[in-house]
Each structure stands twice: as C-alpha cells, then as structure tokens.
Write a structure and sequence with these properties.
Length: about 270
C-alpha cells in the first residue's frame, strides 16, 4: 500500500474534532467573528444555553459585538430568549449599555421595542436612544410624561426639549382628597409572592411608602384607591377592597403589574 493511500485512509477513519459550546462562548467574548462562525459551522447550536441560560447573542449584545450579533441572528438566534437569573434578553443588555446600533438590529430581527428604551434614554440623557424609542416604541402619553420627569430630574435639558417637542407633558396633578378614615386604612405592611415588602404610613395627611426611599416616598391620590408620585404618572398603586377594607394593591408599571397582599395582623399606623 502506498504511503499516500495510507494517509488518506487514516484521515478518513480518524474522528473529526467537532467544535464545542465553549469554543462559541470564548469566541463571542473575545469578539472573534471568524471564531464564532467556525464554532457554528462546527455544529454548535446557535442558542446553546450557557450559565443561567444565557445565549451567545446575550453575550454579544452585552459586549457590543454588532457583527457577531448579526451573524448569530442570521443563523437563527432567538432575540427574545430570556436567561434564568435576571429574566433578561439580548435587548435588556443592549439597553443597559445604551447601544443604539445593537438595539436597532435586534428590533429589526423581532425583539419588541418596549418602554425601557425611552426610560433609559431619558434617565441617561441619551438623545439617540430617545429618538429610537420615539421612532420604534411609539410611547403612550403616560410613558412620555414619565420620561420627561426622568430627564428633568437628571437635568438633561436637551432630552427635556426633545421630549417636549415629541408631545411630552407633565402628568396631571395627583391631588384628589381622600377621606381621612379611608386614607388611614391603607397604612400597614404588604407583601408580594416573591416575599418583597412595602410598608405605608400616614404622615401629615399623606400616604407615605416608608421603605420606597430613604426619606419615605410621599404619594398623591388620583382617586380614592389610586396613588402615585406627584411628578410621575407611573408606577401607580391601586388598592383593592374587601368589605370596605384594603386587602392588597396592584403596583402598575404600565407594561407589567405586581400584586401585593396585606400582611395578616398589620394594624394601621399614623404619625403626626
């Protein structure tokens, strides 16, 4: 048998070393586009879950590797895949970094343009991100008002002007007068399914969330059961009543709601 034939035979029967998930993850972290392509070509699934269910696209969005993200999406990556720790998607990481190019790509490939785009842009003074949110998310009046409050508080004057031109207005006053006995009944401790607690007291005729901020967050009334910060339209706190007494409330963020139940045995508290 000729030597060349023997080499060819060995090559034919020798196992091919396939790429591993670690090859894909390492390449994404390094920003190695060719390495990512080689790992995918070598058989690694594009949405392989890594620690806490994060995917290669999640890491690419976090690190701002736009062309790698584009390749992963071209190969079928799910832009809406959530991890198991933060319930974060690729959009979550891109919003956190204010990466408008990455966000635009993800939206084009099926990720929803949610209210967090506008909120983050207003909070960080990122006019480009605000412009993307206005274009893609089509924010409602409440969302515009909330973003305006964020930008004003952070003194991002250019973004304040940008939002005002887009129709943002301060929220209507939260100055409904709730009867004293009804207001007093809302004081106490409330708990959600995750075990998070919020405590309310009455101070100088106002409902105050004691542990929402170091000084306590004073809430204004929209009506007899609905409260919010005076300068912000959301979140709204809407009490539910059972036989005329508060049994809990819903914390309404607009795009999501969190339910709280009144803790058993909690008496109302009022302070002068």
């Amino acid at each position: 048998m000729r030597a060349g034939t023997l080499v060819a035979l060995v090559a034919f029967v020798a196992p091919t070393l396939a790429a591993t998930p670690d090859d894909l993850l390492d390449a994404v972290r390094r920003g190695d586009l060719a390495g990512v392509r080689a790992a995918l070509d070598g058989g690694v699934a594009v949405d392989t879950p890594f620690r806490y269910g994060r995917t290669a696209l999640s890491f690419a969005a976090d690190r701002g590797h736009l062309e790698i993200a584009r390749l992963l999406l071209d190969r079928g990556a799910d832009p809406n895949q959530k991890d198991t720790f933060y319930s974060a998607t690729a959009m979550t990481w891109a919003v956190d970094k204010g990466n408008v190019g990455m966000l635009r790509l993800l939206i084009e490939r099926g990720a929803p343009a949610g209210p967090e785009l506008l909120q983050s842009g207003a909070r960080e003074g990122n006019a480009e991100l605000v412009a993307l949110a206005l274009e893609k998310a089509k924010p409602a009046a409440d969302e515009l008002s909330g973003a305006l409050a964020e930008a004003r508080e952070a003194k991002h004057d250019a973004v304040v002007e940008q939002l005002t031109r887009a129709g943002a207005r301060p929220p209507t006053p939260a100055d409904f007068v709730v009867e004293a006995a009804t207001l007093a009944s809302y004081a106490g401790l409330y708990r959600n399914e995750a075990g998070n607690e919020l405590r309310f007291e009455i101070r100088e005729g106002k409902l105050v969330c004691v542990n929402c901020s170091p000084q306590g967050m004073v809430l204004g009334a929209v009506d007899a059961v609905t409260f919010r910060e005076p300068a912000r339209p959301r979140p709204r706190l809407v009490f539910s009543l059972a036989e005329g007494k508060p049994s809990g409330f819903v914390l309404d963020f607009g795009n999501r709601q969190v339910s709280y139940r009144r803790a058993e045995g909690e008496a109302a508290k009022e302070k002068p």
